[in-house]
Specification:
It contains twelve helices and eleven strands. The chain is α/β, with parallel strands linked by helices. The chain folds into two domains: 186 residues, D-Maltodextrin-Binding Protein, domain 2, CATH 3.40.190.150; 116 residues, D-Maltodextrin-Binding Protein, domain 2 (3-Layer(aba) Sandwich). The strands form two sheets. A six-stranded mixed β-sheet has the order 2-1-3-10-4-11, sandwiched between helices. The N and C termini lie far apart (54 Å).
Length: 317
């Protein structure tokens, strides 16, 4: 019995010493988006900020493709030592969208959210609507005649549009593009008439008068997207959709390491200059109070996301 207690004590001490030594080498932060865009920007920002707190390099590894599944699988299969981190969204989206996945949400330990933001609802300037209520009335009078430019199945704009159709009782004809950039070009050309987009994708065009912004996809307006009403103010109080980015590590990562990563991320996200940089992307810094709080948020949101994907009818082989 004494030998068992000594062994367990030695194991506990080894874990504690290992955690205290963490990190002893650079970290890899994997993201399922190509360079450019909000996802990549936030990944590079939090990597740079965490490196200052952890005193080691945090190297960004862009692994785009398959809706983020490639990046997620890399991290799910990585050693559970805290040196490989994922920046991603809620895995419930791809679980509902893809017929088969090589990983599961149980393969990850959540650390913290980084930032949260709404999509912006914009229309081509030739569409005869000047408000969200007018868009809904026009869409009801012309079912499926308005073409919606999407950024790809499972993307935040895709899910925002599907939820909008459900709440508003309208139906668009949706066209999915490979990203927000091509979707925006389609809207500008007049090939499509409405678009749900991340703020950086369209706000330059809105300010230049080349697109008309009607509302953001969250109930209240966002300080990060000033001058555009929230859905409630615009006349659709039941509509509320936001997207977020957050950090994960492989399941089995020691809790002291998870806590250290959470501490580093949250500390840097609290800095005013970091908040301002995130606001430029049309998002708000939203660090989680704890890894457990982040996990609870993920689980609470999952049923809604799964329902939205099902209602969209989208499935990827």
């Amino acid at each position: 019995m004494t030998r068992i207690l000594l062994f367990l004590t030695a194991c506990a001490l080894a874990i504690e010493v290992g955690a205290q030594a963490f990190p002893a080498k650079p970290l890899r932060l994997v993201v399922g988006y190509p360079p450019g865009g909000s996802g990549d920007f936030l990944t590079r920002l939090i990597a740079d900020e965490m490196s200052k707190d952890l005193a080691v390099a945090v190297i960004v590894d862009n692994r785009p493709g398959a809706g983020g599944n490639i990046a997620a699988e890399i991290v799910a299969r990585a050693p559970a030592d805290g040196y490989t981190v994922l920046n991603g969204g809620n895995h419930a989206i791809n679980k509902a969208l893809y017929r088969s996945l090589t990983y599961d949400d149980r393969d990850f330990v959540p650390i913290t959210k980084i930032a949260t933001g709404p999509t912006v609802i914009v229309v081509n300037t030739k569409v005869p609507v000047a408000s969200l209520q007018e868009l809904i009335a026009f869409a009801k009078a012309n079912p499926e005649k308005l073409f919606n430019a999407g950024a790809g199945y499972g993307s935040a704009p895709h899910l925002a549009a599907v939820l909008f159709e459900s709440v508003a009782g309208v139906k668009f004809t949706s066209v999915q593009f490979k990203g927000g950039g091509p979707a925006a070009q389609s809207l500008l050309a007049g090939d499509t008439q409405v678009m749900f987009a991340t703020s950086p994708t369209v706000m330059g065009f809105v300010r230049a008068g080349r697109m008309r912004a009607l509302a953001v996809s969250m109930r209240a307006g966002s300080p990060a997207v000033p001058g555009i009403p929230g859905a409630a103010e615009a006349g659709l109080p039941g509509y509320d959709f936001t997207f977020w980015f957050g950090l994960y590590v492989p399941a089995g990562t020691p809790q002291p390491v998870v806590r250290r990563l959470h501490e580093a991320a949250v500390k840097r996200l609290a800095k005013q200059e970091v908040k301002e940089k995130i606001a430029v992307q049309g998002m708000d810094a939203t660090p989680s109070a704890s890894p457990e709080a982040f996990e609870a948020d993920i689980r609470a949101e999952a049923p809604m996301l799964e329902r939205v994907v099902r209602e969209s009818g989208a499935r990827v082989e």
